[in-house]
C-alpha cells in the first residue's frame, strides 16, 4: 500500500459523526451551538440535542446515531456528578465513545474529569481550531 | 445649513486634506478601518456636522432628565438624588447558606437583594426529582416551598429592603412564597418593593429556562403583571431582559430591539386583556448587559430609553410619563470574562460598570473576576461591590446627569443604534409579533448567527481579547473556588419531606385542584389560586406539575 493509499483508507475509516449536547438542566447553550456549527463547517456530521438532557437520553442517542464522539457543555457547576453518571452508563453498555467536556470547569476539576475517563476538557477561550482538532483526534481514536 | 455649519464643513474638509490625509499617508493607522461591535464604521472625528448638521434637534432628541423622550435619564436628579442600587445577584446552596450570604453582602454595602434560584426551582421541579438531583443549590438557592423562603429572609427586614428575583417560568409560585412570608410577618404586600423577572419570552429566545409553550406562558406572565398592578403597586411585575440575548451572542442593536419587541408583546397582551396601559406600564422594568466597548454601550442604553418612550407614547397612547420611562437594571457581560489571567476581569468589569452608569442604569450587578472559572467567593463578590463604590463615591461620574450627552460621537452612535434597532423591531412586527417570531425561530437564528460570527472574529484576531488571543500566557489560573456542600441536597430534601408530612394534605390537593380549574379557563387570573396553594404549603413542583398537565411542555426547535 502506498502512503497516499494508506492516508486515503485512513480518512475513509474515520467517521466524523458526533453528538453535541447540553447535559442537566443548564440552559446556557451559546458554547454548544458555536461548537456544533464549527464542527459542521469542518465537515463533521453533527447531531445536536439541545438543552435539558439526562445522561440516559444522551447514551440512547449516542447508540442510536452511532456517533464517534460525544461533546457535552455544562456551565451550572454540576459537571462532576453528571459526567460521572454518563461515563458509568457508557461503561455499562460496553461503549468507549470518547467524551469531550466544555464549559465553566474549575481547574481542579479538569483532572477529576479526566480521571473519570473524559477524553478532553475545553475551558472558555479555547480556539475553535483546537476544538476541531480535539474532536478529530477523538473520532480517530474511535475509528481505530 | 447655518453659516457657522457651512464654515465648519469648509474647515473640516481643509483639515482632512491638509493635515489628516498626509499624516495617515506618512504613518499608517493601526488598522485600515475602525468599527464598533455593531459594525458601524467610525470616523476619525465627529463634529456638530454629525448632529445639528444632520438635522439633529436637541429638544426632540434629548430633552431633559425625567422628561420625554428620557434620553438623558428617567429621573430629574438621577444619581445626585438617588444612587443606583448596588444589587449583586446571589444565592446558592440551601436557604441557610443564602441567608448568610445576603447578610454578608448587606454588611459590606450592598443596597438591594437579587435572588438567584437553582435550576430545579426555575424549571418547576422539586429537589427530589430525578433530573433535579444533580443541580440542587448549584447556581442559586433551592426554593421548593414557602418554608425555604422563610429561612432565607430570617432577620432581613422585608418592609425595608428591595428584592429582585430572577425567576420566570415559576415566577408566580416564588413571588407567592415571598408575599406569604412577608404577610406572616405583618408586612402588607402593597408596601413590598422589588422585581420578579417574569420575562418568559426571552427564555425561548436565549436563556432556555421555560416549561410551558409560549402562549399559555404569556397568559401566566400577564396574569402576574395584572395582579401586581392591582395589589402590589411598588413591585416591578416584570424585568424585560436583553442581558441574555447579549450573552447568547446578540449585537447591541439586536439586544435592545429583541427586548423592546418582547415588551411590545407583553403590553399588547395586557391591553387586549382589558387593562388601560397607564394602569400597569409603570411597573414594567428592563434589564440589559454592559460590555467593555464603552461608548457604544452608553449609546445603546440611551437609544433604548428613547425608543421605548416613543413606543409607549405613540403606539400605545400612554398618557402617564411613568409609563414611558425605561427603568433598567444592568449586569456586566459575563461572556467577556476570561478564564485566562482572571484578575484582568476586574479591569473589564470596571469599564463595563462605568458604561452602565454613564448610560443611566437604575441598579447594577458587577460580575466577579473568578466567574469564568466557578461561582464567585465572598472575597471576589466584595471586590465587585467595591468597584461600584469607587464609581459612586470616588470617580465624580455622578456629579452631572448624562455627562456624555451632547458629545458628537455619542449622539451620532445613539442615532445609529436607534435606527438599526427600529428596523429589527419593525421586522418582528411584520412577522406578527414576538410570540410568532419565536415560533418561527427568527430571533433564535439571528442570535446564533451573531454568536458564530463573533467567534470567528475572535479566531481571526479581529477582536483582541487579552489573555485569550493576544498577550497570552502559559498558566493555570489559581483562584479560590466556591464549592457547594453536597449535604445541601439532603438538607433540602429532608425539609421537603417533613413539610409534606406536617401539612394538611387534603387542603393542599383542594388548592391544587383550584389551580387546575383556573388554568383550564383563559379569562381568570391564576395568581390568587397559586398563592393559596403555596400558602397551604403546596410545593413549587406540585403547582408546576398541575400546570404542565393542563398546558403541556415546550419542545424547542434545535437551531444552531
From TrEMBL, chain A:
<dbReference type="GO" id="GO:0031419">
    <property type="term" value="F:cobalamin binding"/>
</dbReference>
<keyword id="KW-0479">Metal-binding</keyword>
<dbReference type="InterPro" id="IPR036724">
    <property type="entry name" value="Cobalamin-bd_sf"/>
</dbReference>
<dbReference type="Pfam" id="PF02310">
    <property type="entry name" value="B12-binding"/>
</dbReference>
<dbReference type="InterPro" id="IPR006158">
    <property type="entry name" value="Cobalamin-bd"/>
</dbReference>
<dbReference type="GO" id="GO:0046872">
    <property type="term" value="F:metal ion binding"/>
</dbReference>
<dbReference type="GO" id="GO:0016853">
    <property type="term" value="F:isomerase activity"/>
</dbReference>
<feature type="domain" description="B12-binding">
    <location>
        <begin position="15"/>
        <end position="142"/>
    </location>
</feature>
<dbReference type="InterPro" id="IPR006159">
    <property type="entry name" value="Acid_CoA_mut_C"/>
</dbReference>
<protein>
    <submittedName>
        <fullName>Methylmalonyl-CoA mutase</fullName>
    </submittedName>
</protein>
<keyword id="KW-0413">Isomerase</keyword>
<keyword id="KW-0170">Cobalt</keyword>
<keyword id="KW-0846">Cobalamin</keyword>
UniProtKB/TrEMBL annotation, chain B:
<dbReference type="InterPro" id="IPR006099">
    <property type="entry name" value="MeMalonylCoA_mutase_a/b_cat"/>
</dbReference>
<protein>
    <submittedName>
        <fullName>Methylmalonyl-CoA mutase</fullName>
    </submittedName>
</protein>
<keyword id="KW-0413">Isomerase</keyword>
<dbReference type="GO" id="GO:0031419">
    <property type="term" value="F:cobalamin binding"/>
</dbReference>
<dbReference type="InterPro" id="IPR006098">
    <property type="entry name" value="MMCoA_mutase_a_cat"/>
</dbReference>
<dbReference type="InterPro" id="IPR016176">
    <property type="entry name" value="Cbl-dep_enz_cat"/>
</dbReference>
<dbReference type="GO" id="GO:0004494">
    <property type="term" value="F:methylmalonyl-CoA mutase activity"/>
</dbReference>
<feature type="domain" description="Methylmalonyl-CoA mutase alpha/beta chain catalytic">
    <location>
        <begin position="36"/>
        <end position="553"/>
    </location>
</feature>
<dbReference type="Pfam" id="PF01642">
    <property type="entry name" value="MM_CoA_mutase"/>
</dbReference>
